[in-house]
Amino acid sequence: MESLGKLIFFCGKMGAGKTTQSKLIAANQRAVRISEDEWLAAHYPNQIQSFEDYIKFSTLIKPFIKSHVQSLLTVGVDVVMDFPANTVRQRSWFSSLCSEVQCAHELYYLDVPDEVCLVQIGKRRVEQPERAHFDTEEVFHHVTQCFEEPTDDEGLNIVRV
């Protein structure tokens, strides 16, 4: 009997370090890392100018990403998804992805104070100037209004970082 891969995904406010953590875990576990930012930039170059644009294009790629990830998981490949799981709805999507193929999962919750997130966003603006229009304190506060801390009753395997 063939073993399934494990899905690893992340919850944390903007600037909490989800991308950095995803790269470390993928390297340490020799897993395939799939980055939403990279997929969006490749498929919709220069089209994401607002949070609403992000929501629109993120929604468009999800069906393809889901089938791709499930294909990898069913052949035993561990997958690290650098996609936000910051709301109950987003985490529900990850849960369905796992339950449909009956694979294991881990949700890494990066519980980082707002002040630290804002400092890291400031650094990212300097290191990645192409993101400067999106990586602002104003966008952070707007996005943080939507953030929902994961709870045990969601039925997820939560790893607090």
Automatic annotation (TrEMBL):
InterPro entries with a match to the protein in the record: P-loop_NTPase
GO molecular function, one term: dTMP kinase activity
Enzyme Commission identifier(s): 2.7.4.9
Keyword terms, alphabetized: Kinase, Transferase
Protein name: Thymidylate kinase
Organism of derivation: Vibrio thalassae
